[in-house]
Amino acid sequence: MTTDDARPAAPFGRALCAMVTPFTASGALDLDGARRLAEHLVSRGCDGLVLSGTTGESPTTTDAEKAALVTAVREAVGDRAALVAGVGTADTRHTVELALAAEKAGADGVLVVAPYYSRPPQDALEAHFREVADASGLPVMLYDIPARTGTRIEPDTLVRLAEHPRIVAVKDCSYDLLGTQKVLSRTDLAYYAGCDEQVLALYALGAAGCVSTVANVVPDLFPSVLGAFDAGDTGRAALLQRRALPLVESMTAAGLPGTVTAKALLGALGRPAGPVRAPLRPADRDTTTGLLAAYEELAALAGQSQE
């Protein structure tokens, strides 16, 4: 239990990118593209990468592809960034298998989402997470995103799960600042903002950092926000967060999944991405044009701030 005002340790780094999974034009896994994208993200400030998460299209990649992705990205970035592998499924046994495979492939931790569709009650949810955490030697980041799973990981459940030695972090997409503060005040869990518009707000409350979709295209954005806050320049931190709003909104709150918008922008910028896999569909030309305009506006503001 935490009893002071210190920020919990950041077990997977501070500014993590929820990395897209690059595919070739034919839809095959593009491991070379993944290596190049990972290298770019880490060289621009990301000290952690989440692979095969929601943005990484985990529902449509095979178990073998997930393991190969971890191995390839580890080859590219070495020990310069923590690698967290998404292993969550609706099946406890399958999730355990993926956690063991991620450990073997070289991941530093696993991201485990609440089982979706079946909507287990809290006692079953807790048992699921404990079984996964018991199965491998890797530390666990729980993923609380009830809008997608249909099930909230309730604050009291998180408090109990924090007693497990390998459950160390939460990716928070709950949109419940009160509940988040309850857990932060009662545990040493490292909270990571999973919604880009909430990064600074949660960090100010004691979160460890963020897992960002927007970081795919602006990997240095949130390292700058968090760095300004740490330096005591809270006004600049707030300014940088606000400046990013048009791009954040375009990528994550305009009716398309972040995977689609991130890949559209990456493709427009000439970076590895490729198509999305069905049932997702690519962004249309007008959407891509709007995304690029928001990106260029942010880039111009960043250039002005450095002059």
Please provide a written account of the structure.
With 307 residues, this protein is α/β, with parallel strands linked by helices. Helix content is 47%, strand content 12%. It contains 13 helices and 8 strands. The protein has helices at residues 31-43, 63-77, 92-105, 122-135, 146-149, 155-161, 177-186, 199-204, 221-230, 234-243, 245-252, 258-268, 285-305, and strands at 15-18, 48-51, 82-86, 109-113, 140-144, 167-172, 190-193, 209-212. It has an 8-stranded parallel beta barrel with strand order 1-2-3-4-5-6-7-8, surrounded by 5 helices. Helix 2 runs parallel beside helix 3 and helix 3 (92-105) runs parallel beside helix 4. The longest helix is centred in the C-terminal third of the chain and has 21 residues, at 285-305. It is globular, with a radius of gyration of 18 Å. The termini are far apart. The mean pLDDT is 95.
